[in-house]
Amino acid sequence: MFTSTIGLEARPLEAFENHETEKWRRSVLIVTRDAQAIEAMTDRFAAENYQVRIVSDGFVAMNEIRRSLPDIVIADVESPGISGIELADELGDWGLPVVLTIDSSDHQIPSGIAVLHSPFRVDDLIQTIEEQTTIAEDSSRVVST
Description:
The structure is a single chain. This protein is α/β, with parallel strands linked by helices. The chain contains four helices and five strands, in the order βαβαβαββα. Strands 2-1-3-4-5 form a five-stranded parallel sheet, sandwiched between helices. It is globular. The two termini are 20 Å apart.
């Protein structure tokens, strides 16, 4: 079993007793300091039947993930505490999809991580969430068969 640099063990989704999204289409954890932008998206997320949790830094995000595993994490590349890139690296070992939002091209993003450049349209975010969660679901089906 993999132990992360921040003390979290990689575990399969089934190991999380509270991982259930039957009531919701998707469970999304958003890590951002830009609450105003997220507030603008709230109605759209509700219309898409997404359960959304919003946190302001990477450490709080990891605590939320321990409490209840989301289907996908959307993280600002410059999240305080644990950066979006570090989150993507950690959670990628779990098979949990992460989408990074980025304001500039000053960052080296590892290959294989989905990126949305700010400002982005809500439709693009919704499409990316659906694409990345579908890829993760398909990958887990291949591994489990």
